[in-house]
Amino acid sequence: MSAIRAAVFSPSNQWHEKIQTHFPTHPNRSINNANPNLQSNRRNPFPCFSVDASKSPNPATPLTDTTPPLVVVGSANADIYVEIDRLPKEGETISAKSGQTLAGGKGANQAACGGKLSYPTYFVGQVGEDAHGKLITEALESGGVCLDRLSAVSGAPTGHAVVMLQSDGQNSIIIVGGSNMECWPERISDEDLEVVRNAGIVLLQREIPESVNVQVAKAAKSAGVPVILDAGGMDTPISRELLNFVDILSPNETELGRLTGMPTESFEQISNAVVKLHKMGVKQVLVKLGDKGSALFVDGEEPLKQPVIPAAKVLDTTGAGDTFTASFAVALVEGKSKRECLRFAAAAASLCVQVKGAIPSMPERKSVLNLLQSP
User: Fold this and answer.
1) Which residues are listed for ATP binding in this entry (predicted)?
2) CATH code of the domain containing 300
3) Pairing mode of beta strands 227-233, 201-206
């Protein structure tokens, strides 16, 4: 049986490997898992991290039970890509240069990023019992993500998105929620919440019902587990209830403006908008600024700015924000300073935009480290 290889960033800034035990599968779930013959270790609350080593670029190694995983709770989509020279005008039909369907969705993207960065990563979400669900499952497995809490539901199709990719790498996206928004239980199971409580850090987004995010964030907060909420997804205000349980809110410029009702065209305007979020109770705000880099605002402190790390060529920006947020989370749970976290995430995002697709573009740890070490 194979498992995930993890590397942990120590306070001395040296990378070293750690070992994680195998975990049991819960019998009462409809689960997509590559290995039906999972071993069990009742001393650890997490299911086993199991992938097919023949398919995975990150062959797995068991990790110690002292390595708390990244737990991503969120969406999984089949991204239907169409490559076009420009967006169609109203009432106009244009031809696409090519089209393909790839695995994506903000939750799955972030989980795949964690797995490809060789950190033990756990995905809690839902797919339909269809071909798109299989596509997503296989993509996550090949990235080294534990799927013991990924459910296949019969009452809704797998979520999907139409991604209109223009020749300059920019994209426009239309999302169909499907199983991401439907068929969730009214109360999240104790098994799922136990995984959350034992995580090292929890990542949420806004492509699943807010009631799910509230339950997960509350469980994490009660156990002292940091929660990062990516603001991408629903175009609606975030409830104060959810914000009360969030440690870091991560919007991009557009989302920041939408959440605060304030302009975000200059850094000064962005700073003023963040102050409004601080007054709403959010102590840390991680703002993604596209080609202008990123900035971390901690209430009462000077903001930390991180310039973009230039990419050799921008082919597709899809998934770049998810790569940045997930990479930041991985670096944070591994003990890096906030400035190091920003730089690590910037390097990962720079590599992401050089490859087409969302999950296919998530970089491996070795590539990120090589970029950080290059002159």
Assistant:
1) 252, 288-293, 321-322
2) 3.40.1190.20
3) parallel
**Does the annotation flag 106 for ligand binding?**
yes
Q: Are 233 and 212 in contact (CB under 8 A)?
A: no
- Domain contains 1: no
Mean of pLDDT values over 48-75? 59
Residue 124: is its pLDDT beyond 80?
A: yes
Query: Looking at residue 65, what is its pLDDT?
Result: 54
221 annotated ligand-binding residue: no
Q: Is 130 annotated as catalytic?
A: no
Spatial CA neighbour of 266 closest among 242, 300, 248, 292: 292
Range of the domain at 265: 6-373
Q: What is the pLDDT of residue 337?
A: 97
Domain count for the chain, please give it.
Answer: 1
Question: Could you give the angle at which helices 365-373 and 338-352 cross, rounded to 10 degrees?
Answer: 110
Q: pLDDT at residue 319 above 60? A: yes
Residue 348 lies in a domain: yes
Write down the catalytic residue from 192, 230, 247, 322. 322
Residue 78 annotated as lining a ligand binding site: yes
Share of the chain above pLDDT 70, in %: 82
Other beta carbons within 10 Å of 286? 29
341 forms beta bridges with none
The answer to whether 355 is annotated as binding is yes
